[in-house]
Amino acid sequence: MILQDLLGIKDEIYLVEPGYHSQKNIVTTISYLKDIQKVAGDYSFRAIRITDGTKTTGLAIFNERTEEVPVDFWSIFLSSIASQSIEEFESLADSILDFNPPERVVEVAGNVMNDALIEYYSILLVNRETCNECTMPLESYKRVYAPDRVSRLSELLKKLAQNGISIDGDVLEICCGNGMSTIALHELGIEPTTIEYEKCTVCQGLMHGVLDPKKTIVMDATMLSNFFEHGRFDCVVGFMLGTIYEFNKEMWARMMFESAKVSKEGALMLFTVNSKSEMDILESALRMIGIEGEVMDNTDKLSIYDQWVFIGKRAKKL
Amino acid sequence: MTRKLDVKLTKRPKLNDLEIGDLLHIDTDKKDDVFLIFKGDIDTFFMQSGGNEDVVQYSKSMIEKMLRSFEELHKSSYRITVLDMNEE
User: Fold this and answer.
1) Average of pLDDT values for A259-265?
2) How much is the ipTM here?
3) Is residue A58 part of a domain?
4) Which positions 255-274 of A are in contact with B (Cβ < 8 Å)?
5) Can you give the pTM of this predicted structure?
């Protein structure tokens, strides 16, 4: 695991925040640190200070095995990707380390820690440690992934590339589901960051090795700008988005706006849907936020997936 | 949870509680089968909307989000039937 390697820890590690998303507000982390600070002078424990080169961004505390927890492990507290309570975290962590000087200081850049956290929570998900009573058995690869659907999308992407519309650079795939479409991207050598709200489908994609644990996040696509820096991606794609109707078009408009916010000026925006009526709504939402592009008719008699394609570019100003 | 077949329900059943082969009908006062959702496998769902012949696979979260938005605007009721795979 990347996080263990970065921290040079061979024992088990445990992050107190339950998910990647909660590493943004670190409410549980702060609560734990306040409790530890109260008793920091009364006990001595092994600790590691984590820094980004300037300030304390993390703290690892060793927990010796007990009868209840029969394994040695390190509790990890981080503010590396937090968007709030950063100063409070630093103050609490430094105060704890004043009483228990760290046995080591480990320097980890914020972006490196970000990747490590994504992988940590992917592994946690696959090990079913984020779900109390998971009853979802793994469906077989053959039942889940349809080769025809993947190959049709591959053909579409190849055709677009031949016409100078290439998906490359830092790519974000929204609503990736179990990674059905991600397979087509991988076949073209594209390694996207993939996001999906439904953790069971993500779990399935991770378990089948279709989704990359280092690049897959369980996340709501209407919240993209809370997690990714503005103007980061060279390309945002989404395949078989839907279902899109008049009554839920605001949600899709929000997703498109958020996609635009996290993409660079001039970034390629590529989305596919099933029906023309869905594309009409999506296109309208994209044009409203200044995404210029064209709609491609990709219909055929045999297939129902990726029938309509929007190919556009993010304007200079949103 | 034991599901009740072909009974009008005012509360939407959880998609996870459907059994493989079940068909969830979403009705309103004005129209039956506005949406039909078929559970094809443990975590595989297909949807058909009224007037559209395509039966399309979407992720559970997408279907649930869509239904939530629909329910905000329309009083909906639900029925579960079992799809007869041998039916012509």
Assistant:
1) 96
2) 0.78
3) yes
4) 274
5) 0.90
